Amino acid sequence: MEANLAARPQTSKTAFKVLGAISFSHFLNDTIQSLMLAIYPLFKMEFGLSFAQIGMITLAFQFTASLLQPVVGFYTDRHPKPFSLAIGMGCTLIGLLVLSMVASFPAVLLAAALVGTGSAIFHPESARVARMASGGQHGLAQSIFQVGGNAGSATGPLLAAWIVLPYGQRSIAGFSLIALLAMIVLIGVGRWYRQHQRKPSIISRSSGDALPSLHVARTLTVLIALIFSKFFYLASINSYLIFYLMHQYNLDTKSAQYHLFYFLLSVAAGSLLGGPIGDRIGRRQVIWVSILGVAPFTLFLPYVGPDLSVALTMIIGFMLASAFPAILVYAQELFPGKIGTVSGLFFGLAFGLAGIGAAVLGQLADLWGIVTVYKICAFLPLIGLLAVFLPNLRQPAPLTTASEKTKA
């Protein structure tokens, strides 16, 4: 029997222990994912790789991490697999062990693909679990889930600098313990998921059902455009902020890294608060303010001094990060009953666009200079004007169990 997991009753309790477990697992997963990118210099020196081969490693990692996510979500919408989260983390564990022992470039590609596959399995199903555990507070649940990932993304490069770079390739095997810990946590989550599945199915009538298919397609196109705006701009900060600050203000590397840390801290805060704010005032409003509202700050950023740039990047990070929980939950409500597919699509887009953005902006920086790139990227949030085409989605209609519907 297929469970409809589009929504939970508003009266059910929010399962904060489950949300905490899935957020912690997201932290461990994204720590490993960001570690992959941070150890490129080690493999470049170890195997004498060219930049083109480094790009192939990224392609192998991003191909599985991005493109497989909607496929996994589509499948698990029809065939829920409570323990697939732990199995996915097992792929990551194997990938790390292979990565610590490889002696050839093709083996590096295989290991990168395995780590990416683990991430592809993890994100759609964990987003589903977060919604199941939300108790109706869908934005809050997604924020708690996503802040773990933000923290992990910031932690991975630090661990690479402290452990992998000084101690070499073999030390990567030690990070398999992180994946093992995540597997243990996710087995517990899987048990909860299985028990939750056995409860009566929940049937919700969401506004996504009422919209004509043409409007649904247009709304989805707008959401994808907003995701493009957000993640292309974030790629310019994540990948090149340090270089921009060093070039524009003659800052040393350490000072520039502090600026990046402040930015990442604000991103974590935005991820945590964006969801519950959307629960209170509406997700469309949060999307509108966080994407378009950030434009004045991005437009000013290339023309201010180093001190003010810290404040502006923190505001930008907070506002842009607050958009993603709202966009994801909005999309889930647009397509009730397709939580895995929608989550996989949007997480896949986030991964893919971030990777493409970093590559494209790097090429432009080589051609025109990093400052020019920041001036161009400053206009990306104006794509947020498209939010005017987002319909106001109603709250889901009163929910009934499948058995109650039969009686009626």
Automatic annotation (TrEMBL):
<feature type="transmembrane region" description="Helical">
    <location>
        <begin position="105"/>
        <end position="123"/>
    </location>
</feature>
<dbReference type="GO" id="GO:0022857">
    <property type="term" value="F:transmembrane transporter activity"/>
</dbReference>
<keyword id="KW-1133">Transmembrane helix</keyword>
<keyword id="KW-0812">Transmembrane</keyword>
<feature type="transmembrane region" description="Helical">
    <location>
        <begin position="214"/>
        <end position="236"/>
    </location>
</feature>
<feature type="transmembrane region" description="Helical">
    <location>
        <begin position="171"/>
        <end position="193"/>
    </location>
</feature>
<feature type="transmembrane region" description="Helical">
    <location>
        <begin position="82"/>
        <end position="99"/>
    </location>
</feature>
<feature type="transmembrane region" description="Helical">
    <location>
        <begin position="367"/>
        <end position="390"/>
    </location>
</feature>
<protein>
    <submittedName>
        <fullName>MFS transporter, FSR family, fosmidomycin resistance protein</fullName>
    </submittedName>
</protein>
<feature type="domain" description="Major facilitator superfamily (MFS) profile">
    <location>
        <begin position="18"/>
        <end position="396"/>
    </location>
</feature>
<feature type="transmembrane region" description="Helical">
    <location>
        <begin position="310"/>
        <end position="330"/>
    </location>
</feature>
<dbReference type="InterPro" id="IPR020846">
    <property type="entry name" value="MFS_dom"/>
</dbReference>
<feature type="transmembrane region" description="Helical">
    <location>
        <begin position="256"/>
        <end position="274"/>
    </location>
</feature>
<feature type="transmembrane region" description="Helical">
    <location>
        <begin position="144"/>
        <end position="165"/>
    </location>
</feature>
<keyword id="KW-0472">Membrane</keyword>
<dbReference type="Pfam" id="PF07690">
    <property type="entry name" value="MFS_1"/>
</dbReference>
<dbReference type="GO" id="GO:0005886">
    <property type="term" value="C:plasma membrane"/>
</dbReference>
<feature type="transmembrane region" description="Helical">
    <location>
        <begin position="49"/>
        <end position="75"/>
    </location>
</feature>
<dbReference type="InterPro" id="IPR011701">
    <property type="entry name" value="MFS"/>
</dbReference>
<feature type="transmembrane region" description="Helical">
    <location>
        <begin position="286"/>
        <end position="304"/>
    </location>
</feature>
<feature type="transmembrane region" description="Helical">
    <location>
        <begin position="18"/>
        <end position="43"/>
    </location>
</feature>
<dbReference type="InterPro" id="IPR036259">
    <property type="entry name" value="MFS_trans_sf"/>
</dbReference>
<feature type="transmembrane region" description="Helical">
    <location>
        <begin position="342"/>
        <end position="361"/>
    </location>
</feature>
